[in-house]
Amino acid sequence: MTETAPAPANDTGHKMSAKNVNVFYGSTQAIRDVSIDIDMDHVTAFIGPSGCGKSTFLRTLNRMNDTVASARVEGDIRLDGEDIYSPSMDVVQLRARVGMVFQKPNPFPKSIYENVAYGPRIHGLAASKADMDGIVERSLKRAGLWEEVKDRLSDSGTALSGGQQQRLCIARAIAVDPEVILMDEPCSALDPIATAKIEELIHELRGRYAIVIVTHNMQQAARVSQRTAFFHLGTLVEYGVTDDIFTNPRQERTKDYITGRYG
Amino acid sequence: MNKRLASSDRAPTDWKAEAMQKRIRRRYAAERRFKLMGLAAVVLSAAFLAFLLATMAANGARGFMRTEVALEFDFPALALPVDRAQLSTPGADLALAGAELENVVKGAASAAYPGPVPLISDNGWLTVRDAIKADPGILGRKERIWIPASPEIQLALRGEGDPAVVTGASKLEGLGAIRTGFNRDFLTASNSTDPMVAGIWGALKGSLLTMAITFLIAFPVGVLSAIYLEEYATRNRWTDLIEVSINNLAAVPSIIFGLLGLAVFLGTWEMFGHQFGPLLPRSAAVVGGLTLALMIMPVIVIASRNAIKAVPPSIRDAALGIGASRVQVVFHHVLPLAMPGILTGTIIGMARALGETAPLLLIGMRAFVVQPPQGFTDPATVLPVQIFLWSDEVSRVFVEKTSAAIIVLLVFLLAMNGLAIYLRNRFETRW
To answer: With a cut of 0.90, is the ipTM above it?
Structure first.
């Protein structure tokens, strides 16, 4: 099932590695025995038809599934070799190190500045007001939003357009200096121009963070990612270099999906 | 396949046919009927409200007015046996007691108006006493003092009651010795057996003290319970049971809460609790406030839970996603967004508590209280109970005061509802 993983799963060398992960919602199994490695400097795309478990799996990587009472995760997921489900792992710190961008832009109904400053503030990352200003500016610049909002940082974040809101959410995620950024269909609520901007941004961010992006848009996966994982019915069907997956899939199911036979 | 054939066999729908037209007419008629019914309902309730307000205003306006008569006192000639040096000390009342001031004043009143009814009210002589206390200098000169008239005189001025009294009263009016004006005592005095000097300040203060206790207990406990139930508790049989219990408590008649308050705060506490703390007094604002807090807590919990539930989950995800803890999510994001709803529910609950009578009767807040309460443990009564007590009185003047007190209560209720609307708009976040 995981024979296509690009490298043997040992803990050293990979930013994150998941081994034999099963996720249950109550008695239904949403993820079956998934093993995958995620590396720095790469964008990893999860593709697959709706309900195949790609978002569920993404949410296990920063333990957002903890908020679902019926969810149960089995298996071994490591960040820099450290088991993220071990009792010694602080979930609050984990989520700062593994940031997340959601499907629907969800800025806080506060000012643009506050949106970005909130994370650094609760983690105590800024020593002074000037320090915080610097973090906010740097984050907004990296998210490609600074030029558009620098004169109205006190405006409400919810007054921005959809694409700007999503970039604000990305700025908010990178403000706490994460190592991995998880993006759950970040462009599905955006128009093509805003989507193009986000994709451009993902390219620019690639060098600093390990990025995992869930998408139902195969062209997008082909455009932005270096590695692609194809999920189907809760299993990882194929995982490999994006070009190989799209031009020369080894599995019949992958081929059927990317040629539009189902999905 | 067969089905399809069958449907294509049917004749095309004739939208102009008589039956179709009739159906359309019937539909429009139903629409008009429904609109009329709605309009009638609104008009009916508006009429009832207007009737209530008009009656209250008509009766209550008189409750705010009082008739006073002027009496001339030649203090040097009366030569009251009063030690003037004591008048500026706390012993003033005692010093004046020896002067038999009540008889002096009443004698002067019956000299001015030797009619079949008293001229001044039973407690009218207290006005003279207070005047002397305020300015002992008047004992050395002639002084004209305005004293509350008796209820009979007040009514006679409006042409009600014994015709002989009516003519007597209008004669006095002609002399300029009688006047009717705004009764400031009504807002500053407390209850009294004499309707001419009775006021609502004591009851109002009792209400404010009771509300303060109610708010201080019910708001934090209610909101924290709601937060726990919505954000922390896992759904299981126990939380379901708690939810059903809270919903049922919100529907329990208020008098039952009065019995509960009586049994717990007074009965049980007296038997077992007082070894751990001070004994809770009867008829006091603290016990009334605790009882009403029990009563409105379910309302606050339900309103707060709904407000918290209405906060979009995406905001929680956003905060959790950058590493906020559960408490930070609640206090930084969920609670501020839910605040307008929580405050609205709380103020509506407080308004309900402010208008509540039955539970307070049971814990003894129907006592006759002449002194305004000085603290939470002093005997007190509250506005609705005061209204209830006055409505039992025979005197016409008390009947008018009842309406006036109702107006004061309604003004407070309207102010609270207005505050609820203001706070909701003020804190509402627009997306």
So the answer is: no
